[in-house]
Structures are given as C-alpha cells and as structure tokens.
Amino acid sequence: MDRDCPIGVFDSGVGGLSILRALRAELPHEDFVYFSDAGHAPYGEKGEAFVSNRSLAIAVDLLEQHRIKGLVVACNTATAAAVHLLRARHTQLPVIGVEPALKPASALTRTGRVAVLATRGTLSSAKFQALLTSLRHQADFVLVPCDGLAAAVEAGDEARIRELCRRYTVEVCCFGSERGEIDTVVLGCTHYPFAEEVFRELLGPSIQLVETGQPVARQTRRLLSDRGLLSPDGSGRVEWRTSGAPEVLQSAAARWLGLDTAGSPGGLRLAA
Fold it and tell me: Gene3D superfamilies in the record, alphabetically (predicted)?
C-alpha cells in the first residue's frame, strides 16, 4: 500500500456516511471508497457471527479491488463484533473502529446522567459492556435500545424517524439540567446523527448530543500520519459500492453529503 491509495469505509448501510462526512472534513486530500452493505442490513439486529463474517469479507474485497491503505469500520455493531478480528487478520492495515462516545459524554455531563441510544447489538456486545464497566464511576449511563431507528434512517422515512425518536426519548424521560436529570445524550449508532435535528427539537437546546465522527476522523489522521500514509495532494474523490439498492445510497449521499454518486469516478457499483 502507498499514500496514493484510498481509505476504505464500510457500514451496514448509509449510517456510515456520518463518519465519511467527518473524515472528508478532516482529510480533504484523501480519496475514499465507501461500501454500504445494505443488502445485509441491519447489522444491529443480527448475530455477532454474521456481522463478523460480513466485516471480514468486505475488508478482503476492499483490499483486493481497491488496494486500500486504511480501513474505517463506520458501524458500532461491526466494530464491537469484528474490529479485533480485522486487526489480527490484517496486521499491516490501519483499522479504525467506532464506539459510542461514552468517554466524551462522561466528561461533558454536569448532572452525572447520560442516555446512550444505540442498537441492541451494540449495547449487548462484550466490547460495549467492557467500556461501560470502565466508566461506571464517572457517570450514570441509561441504555436505550432503539429498535428500528437505523432502518428508518436507511429508508429516509421522515415520519417513522420522528415517531421513533419521540418514542425513545419519552421512554427515557427526565431530561434537564437539574440533579438526577439527563443532560447528555450519546448517539451510539452512526445512523443517528442524521436524526439529530429531530432529537434537538424533542429535547431542546440545553441537552448535549454527542456522536463519534470527529474523534474517528482525528484517529484516522493520526494512524495514517504515523505510517507516512497521508496523501499530500489527493483529489478528495469518493468511490461507491453497495450490496443493496443503489438508489438508497444515491439518495442518502445527495441528501446528507451533497454528493452525486452516479457522477463519481467509476459511478456506483454493486457489491456481493
């Protein structure tokens, strides 16, 4: 691999576009390949073995087809299930995972109570439970499995997104700045930042929303820099792969990133 190679980014669908957005802002001279595994989504409601196998297969595909110089696992569920396997299998490849931003949230909260919105797959994973245990004395974390929300974001179903956001914030209750109230919310799935406006409307401006895009982008820069792999003059292009319906990825990329997948180099290609 060399510094002119692209960075691979994959997610179970379009949620990883929130990570790609942060990566492109942090690394404007890097080229990317985005792999949406929408044909096998949602990961958060599937077993760990299935997610691990898909993650390993996608990594091989990106290495063989695109000669990627780094891999960003832009999915909390895939990170929890497979990031250790990917690092063990591909020792020369920088592999960056994501995790719900519990550490930043524990530093931000003033009331000491934090809600963590995530998929069941993430919340039940050993990796997440270890993270939660390591921070148990720093804040009181209220865990909220948000069934269906990632799928609603994937489909761009605004009415369903609003309904589910309302349901899961009502379930938690007691938001505010007083002692015993929740003043910080972790958006613990890469899909959820695309529902941020709805959450802000429901929760009000005083509640802090925390997601993982910027920390992941900074870590990606650090790892590539350490290995001399930063591109000094790349074009910032994005190539697109999907195992699902192309129009879903096309619509999401246009809506949230302002990018035209059909007009990108190589267009949008289907993946197995």
Answer: 3.40.50.1860
SS3 58: helix
pLDDT band at 264 (very low <50, low <70, confident <90, very high): low
Which structural domain range is residue 118 located in? 102-211
116, 142 contact by CB (below 8 A): yes
Proportion of the chain above pLDDT 90, given as a percent: 68
Q: What is the CATH number of the domain that holds 22?
A: 3.40.50.1860
DSSP state, residue 51 = H
Q: Are 35 and 62 in contact (CB under 8 A)?
A: yes
186-200: burial string, b at 16+ Cβ within 10 Å, e else: bbbbbbbbbbeebbe
Q: With cut-offs at 50, 70 and 90, classify the pLDDT of residue 266.
A: low
Give yes or no: 189 in active site. Answer: yes
Catalytic position from the list 5, 146, 165, 189:
189
Q: Which residues are annotated as a binding site for substrate?
A: 11-12, 43-44, 76-77, 190-191
pTM as predicted: 0.85
- 133 is a domain residue: yes
Q: Give me the pLDDT at residue 268, please.
A: 67
Distance, in Å, from the CA atom of 15 to the CA atom of 6, rounded to the nearest integer, reads 20
228/246 same-domain check: yes
Q: What is the DSSP letter of 261?
A: S
Look at the chain and report how many structural domains it folds into.
Answer: 2
Catalytic residue among 5, 75, 146, 165: 75
Active site residue 5: no
